[in-house]
Every structure is written in C-alpha cells, then in structure tokens.
C-alpha cells in the first residue's frame, strides 16, 4: 500500500447486511395505508441507497405520485413504522462477523458510513450484535451531506484522526465509491450487494465476491484509482 492501512469504512445496507426484505415490507405497509399496490423486491432494491426520503418519494412516484403536497408526513410515518422493525428479518451477509472480528484483531479502526437514518442504523447494529465491532457510526443525520458527497466520508476520517490515504471504503453502490474517491479513499466493492447496475462499472479499486475475501484484498490495494 502507498500508506499503512489504519481504518476500514463500511456502508451498511447491502454491504454489511441483507436488509432488503425488511425495507420491502416497510415500503409496502406504507403504500397500503394509501391504497397503493405493493412493489416487488426488485423495484424497491432499485430505490435503495439515497436515504429514506428518496426511498419514500420513489415508492410513491412508482405507484401514482405523492399523495400530498409535502413528503414530510409520509417520511415520518414510514420511519415510525420501519425503525423498530428494521431488524425483523435482516441478517449480516455470510462472513461479516468473522471478518470484522479479524480486522479488529489486526488493530484497524472500523466505521459505518451509511445513508440510513440514525435510529434504524442503531437498531439494526444492536439487534444483530454488530455494534461492538465499530469505533464510529456516521448515519444520515450525522454528516453535513450524505453519500455520494465526500463530506460523509471526511467526517469519519476527521473524527478518527486518520488521513484519507490510510483508509479504505467497502461498499456495494456507486454512492459508496464516488464519495470515497472524492475524499481520496481507496475502495472495495461487493459483487453481491444492491448495486444499480453492473458492479464492474462502479470503478472500485477491487471487487470481491465474498465478504471474507476482504482480508486477503486489503494488503494488496494500491493508490486510489
């Protein structure tokens, strides 16, 4: 590596966890309150990644448009329903817990960098027992702008006291890769997450097919692409 690795940053939905079933269920419960038809898993998957407000807006637009003049009330209703149930069926991807434990043993700082709301993020990490692995969690409300804005990544680097060249971002979407690259951070993409299109097109420095492959890939990363 061009600089010794000190920290690994992780996206949450689609990267650390398979949360899509709970998101689909919450979206369809919301739509049902407005007598809208349910959306398929693939349809909701294509809407995930840009924050809860974007998800709510896209779900309504796909089924006839926003029922009222402002998204606020619908977003609040969605979050009130989703947040306490955000880990009903959500699970870590295979290899996540073992890999996080190994990275901690190696002395690396670990952080979550997610566009998910803070309450849902805390609920999921706690219920799945993943919270113990992380030095820092920066959710949607904890940064001046969410991914793909590099400010999201820079908040983490600043709070950890780590330079961009000493960090790697692991994600599954273009937002993860763009935010990391703009912040000068190297990137690893997952081939099995929620990317909206071919993972090879994301422009990550490396792509892995299983979460546990991360241990082997990290020592071989060069400068950011």
TrEMBL record:
Its cofactor is Mg(2+). The active site is at 11 (nucleophile). One of its GO terms (cellular component) is cytosol. Keywords: Carbohydrate metabolism, Hydrolase, Magnesium, Metal-binding. Pathway: Organic acid metabolism; glycolate biosynthesis; glycolate from 2-phosphoglycolate: step 1/1. One of its GO terms (molecular function) is phosphoglycolate phosphatase activity. The keyword Transferase does not apply. It holds the Pfam family HAD_2. Mg(2+) binds at residues 11, 13, 172. It catalyses: 2-phosphoglycolate + H2O = glycolate + phosphate. Signal peptide: none annotated. Its EC number is 3.1.3.18. It comes from the Bacteria. One of its GO terms (biological process) is DNA repair. InterPro entries: HAD-like_hydrolase_sf (IPR050155), HAD-like_sf (IPR036412), HAD-SF_hydro_IA (IPR006439), HAD_2 (IPR041492), HAD_sf (IPR023214), PGP-like_dom2 (IPR023198), PGPase_prok (IPR037512). Belongs to the HAD-like hydrolase superfamily. CbbY/CbbZ/Gph/YieH family. HAMAP family: GPH_hydrolase_bact. NCBIfam families: HAD-SF-IA-v1 (TIGR01549), HAD-SF-IA-v3 (TIGR01509), PGP_bact (TIGR01449). Specifically catalyzes the dephosphorylation of 2-phosphoglycolate. Is involved in the dissimilation of the intracellular 2-phosphoglycolate formed during the DNA repair of 3'-phosphoglycolate ends, a major class of DNA lesions induced by oxidative stress. This is Phosphoglycolate phosphatase. It comes from Paramagnetospirillum marisnigri.
């Amino acid at each position: 590596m061009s600089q010794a690795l000190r920290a690994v940053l992780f996206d949450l939905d689609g990267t650390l966890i398979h949360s899509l079933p709970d998101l689909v269920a919450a979206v369809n419960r919301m739509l049902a309150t407005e007598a809208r038809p349910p959306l398929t898993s693939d349809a909701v998957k294509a809407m995930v990644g840009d924050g809860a407000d974007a998800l709510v807006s896209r779900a309504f637009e796909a089924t006839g448009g926003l029922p009222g003049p402002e998204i606020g009330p619908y977003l609040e209703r969605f979050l009130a329903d989703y947040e306490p149930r955000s880990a009903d069926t959500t699970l870590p991807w295979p290899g996540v817990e073992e890999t996080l434990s190994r990275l901690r043993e190696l002395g690396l700082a670990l952080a979550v960098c997610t566009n998910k709301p803070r309450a849902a993020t805390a609920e999921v990490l706690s219920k799945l027992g993943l919270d113990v692995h992380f030095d820092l969690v920066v959710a949607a409300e904890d940064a001046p702008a969410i991914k793909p804005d590099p400010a999201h990544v820079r908040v983490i680097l600043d709070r950890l006291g780590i330079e961009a060249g000493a960090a790697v971002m692991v994600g599954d979407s273009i937002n993860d890769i763009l935010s990391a690259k703009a912040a000068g951070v190297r990137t690893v993409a997952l081939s099995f997450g929620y990317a909206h299109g071919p993972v090879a097109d994301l422009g990550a420095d490396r792509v892995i097919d299983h979460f546990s492959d991360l241990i082997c890939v990290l020592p071989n990363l060069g400068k950011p692409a």
